[in-house]
Amino acid sequence: MRPKTSRRPVPAPPPRKASARKKAAAARIDARDERIALGDLSSNLGYRVRRTQLWVFKDVSRRLAPFGLSPAQFSVLAVIAANPGINQLTIASALDIERAGLGRLVDRLEQQGLVTRTASLVHPRYYVLHLTAAGARLLERVRPVIAASEQALAEKLGSNVYQGLLRSLSIFLYD
Q1: What does DSSP assign to residue 33?
Q2: Number of helices and strands (H, E) in the chain?
Q3: In whole angstroms, what is the distance from residue 56 CA to residue 9 CA?
């Protein structure tokens, strides 16, 4: 005769922990579902401009992703296209990008065959930039995508408000 053994229930394995990315995504979803009081921020133009910039950045990033471009890369390509032979320092200043960061960004664009970088004949310590044929073709393909993003913003704001903002904010273009 076998002795009686009590069968203990086997404990269930602990629930799997959600990854940090899943937790962050869930928090963003929860945050969107809840409207919180913003206090002084609700009447702060700077905060509203920043929120608008974030919306635009997300939209542009999403639209540029299939082309393998970031908004910063698009900006640099657009400036080079408008100013062939421009030096990196001038681009860094115009786009408010740190020189080292711009150097890395241009390295990537050069590796992708979108820009060429050569020593300046006028200032040998500077590099000047030109779009390659591939860079020019990519920029032509991307311009309608950027225009669609601008159109989405115009629709969100309304055409009159959009045009008014363009005019009003133009004072910061070269500030």
Answers
A1: H
A2: 7, 3
A3: 55
CA Rg, the chain, in Å? 25
> How many domains, in total, are found in the chain?
1
The per-residue pLDDT for range 24-81, each reduced to its tens digit, is: 666 666 656 678 999 999 899 999 999 999 999 999 999 999 999 999 999 999 999 9
CA distances from residue 17 to 25, 28, 84, 117 in whole angstroms, order as listed: 14, 18, 53, 48
Instruction: Judge if pTM exceeds 0.85.
Output: no
CA 106 – CA 119 distance, rounded (Å)? 14
Q: Structure tokens of 146?
A: 């950027």
What tokens appear for 5 in the block? 């053994």
- Residue 46's domain is classified under what CATH number? 1.10.10.10
CB 152 within 8 A of CB 59: yes
What residues form DSSP beta bridges with 87?
128
